[in-house]
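ok trying again, last paste got cut off:
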Amino acid sequence: MKNKLILAAAVSAMALTSQAALAGKADDTLNWSTTREVDVALPYYNNVREMVILARHTWDNLLYRNTKTFEYEPALATSYKWVDSKTLEFKIRSGVKFHNGADFSADDVVATYNHVSKPDSGVLTKQNVSWIDHAEKTGPDTVRVHLKKTFPAALEFVAGPMAIFPKDIWSTARKGAKGKLDYGTVDAIGTGPYITTKIVSGDRIEMKKNPNYWKGSPKGQPSIGNIVFRTVADPESQIAELLSGSLDWIWDVPKDKADQLKLIGIAKVVSAPTMRVNYLAMDYAGRSGKGKSNPWLNPKVREAVAHAIDRDSIVKNLVGGAAQVVHSNCYPSQFGCTQEVPKYKFDPAMSKKLLAEAGYPNGFSTDIFAYRQRPVTEAVMGYLAKVGIKTNLKYMQYKALRGLVWEDKAPFHNMTWGSYSMNDVSAIASHFFKGGRDDYCRDPEVIKALEEGDTSTDTAKRKAAYKKALNKLAKNLCWLPLFSYSKYYAFTHDLDFTPTADEIPRFFTAKWK
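nice, full thing came through this time. structure:
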């Protein structure tokens, strides 16, 4: 039925006028979409992947990480150096203006870093800012950032999620219902290649090219005049809109749909690897309860799940492209991501044996929570059903599921993590397994090893510490990595666009053919 829908959409699209099919190029507006909503259009106060992308267009950072070499290049800072193991010094660029016309200066850097690192700042992903003690201006164009402790991965964060805002913007925050300042209400003002012009929460975000974008930026000068992000919740509708010309770019296209789109030929289809990892979390820590009602406390149950799922088949048949099975709780290219960990092959007979030994000879029933790529979760459910684990799918928006995870109400969930595209184990393992809101493991040995890896300046010691933590995690099976994604992009033939492995589309490098 779905195949027929795509073919029908293709026929309708081909029947449209050439002008409609070239709508994006015709009015110099790149229309792109995903299924997810962006309710707050500010970095620090929204951590969905869409906001990571939008942030790179509206805001700049002190440094820029080259997408090919992973080297750090000057951006709002012309240079940097380590003063000591806990102090970074940046020389601040002059001649840059914010979208509101204000001059960018060292004061803006200090204000941004000091605001987001405050305990009451409300920043959603604490790990992005928790390494900062404070920032200070030490000269007209010099800023020193003092770390709470040695943290060699700091530069990944400086070049990643640490967007710079105007110094006075935080005082414009409105109060929420409880009288507390809601910093997610400030205006979306940065120095980036695109200016945010309209935000309709949960629906769309509109941008226009920054005509005064600073020369010499490693991002280059933007070419396309306007960018519009829209939420289109139904993937089939996304494909239909792409084929009809009302959308110019989509991603997360399922493998079978990508194959069909290639055959149709109306849109260009590209597959590229990403740093995003799909995983199953099981409540090893007993956050949802310590009694018999929580089967995830039993190590044999968790191992049974690991043996029940044919990850190779999911990769081949549902994900495709450059996707690969992941055994360690990190992305293979990340610093410190050892692959020398216990591995669990697909073995349903072993899975049934383990369940029987755990006291579940007839299996058991449980809820499974998910928010993304339902066919993958349903495939997991199918494999579990074959060994006796019956699952009831609780499928919802990311924000809702994230809240349940933090409230200890999602003991078995299938989610994904893109590490904010940072090429360091600390961006994934240290986020999930150091006792925070997402940690369903809470293993003291793991926490200690990750802390050692996060704070050592000795490369060999860092790798050894991370290897210890990742091995213990693989044995615990509180978090079973399934695979890394190969993302399928589909876009109009009129668009010159190249995907990057860090899963951050850079529309400021795209142009019309």
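cool. The first helix runs from residue 2 to 15. Residues 307 and 344 are 6 Å apart (CA to CA).
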